[in-house]
Give the backbone structure.
Amino acid sequence: MEEEKDDRFFQIMSDKIVESIVREFGELMISSLTEEQATYTAKLDDFSVQIVRYGWSISFVLKALTNFTEIIYEKMDEAEYLNEGNFQSHRDILTNWITPLNHSIVDAYSVVWEKTVSLQKIALQELSASLIPVFEKISVMPLVGTIDTERAKLIMENLLHGVVKHRAEVVLLDITGVPVVDTMVAHHIIQAADAVRLVGAKCMLVGIRPEIAQTIVTLGINLNDFTTTSTLQKGVEQALAMTNRAIVEVNI
Amino acid sequence: MNLRSSVDIITEWDIVAARQLGRNEAKEVGFGTVDQARITTAISELARNIYLYAGKGKIEIRQITDGNLRGLLVIASDKGPGIVDVRKVMEDGYTTSGGLGAGLPGVRRLMDDFKIETVLGEGTTISASKLLR
């Protein structure tokens, strides 16, 4: 690992950490020679997990391992230990030694990545689409972020379930946080609104930003069946009006 | 000046990557928010067409100059089945996938210049550009 000292990872790592990892690696190697297979494997896995936690890039770690192998060859060469006769068998021993090491490192990295991706997916789904009852008979679904096919399905499901559960008469779909409204997004919104109508509620589209309004018009998308407003606030006022209510100021 | 960058469209999320790239390029050229939204939406439509009909393809975005006007050229290319009736797909409301049928005619209206080259069985290349005025 010392060989890669000019690598940028070493510039941001303190010498102390690098030294401790190098020492640990040394101990691990000794353990692989002196201790039982099971003990070594457990130690190796711990080491890999720790390497991942330091945030080193996988290519750097694998390069370090390759360098380590090369150095061993060099040292054996310098000591004139290798000859034509024993080269093959030593190479096999070394390969059997280094390969599990590589595998363990790659495994540790991929496990972390897979976990990150699946956690993010869950987090995204939780953010996806929740229907919030704000007043009696009025619910709001704020949509934030990109809408893909999977999310569109989720929106539809949650919307219909929510409408029935909260006994909503007016549902406000807030698209303030949707960055792009293209024909697919519009199509999904229209379908969702149609479905909401079937379960006996009205759907309003709120939070239409000026630039989104212009692109919708240019695209030629027909939203005439919708009541639309620019902000959620205006939407709520209209929804109240639709259900024969209003917010009034009182003097006490 | 001819800066170019591209995004391969293979999964649905590549559509997001393509329009993110488009938005950044549009910002760099100096387009306002409305035109940024137009360009991003156009890229979104083109990228989705690739994803839906051709399976995979590429969105390329170039900064262009025409006289002393700067602009952005979007090229969507795929090696898909090609378009059977170009005149028909440019009609509002025509769709083969149950969508709104507003994609391609919409893109033509969102951008300044619009060209389709398509060969049946070989693929489609659509170029659309917009100039900063």
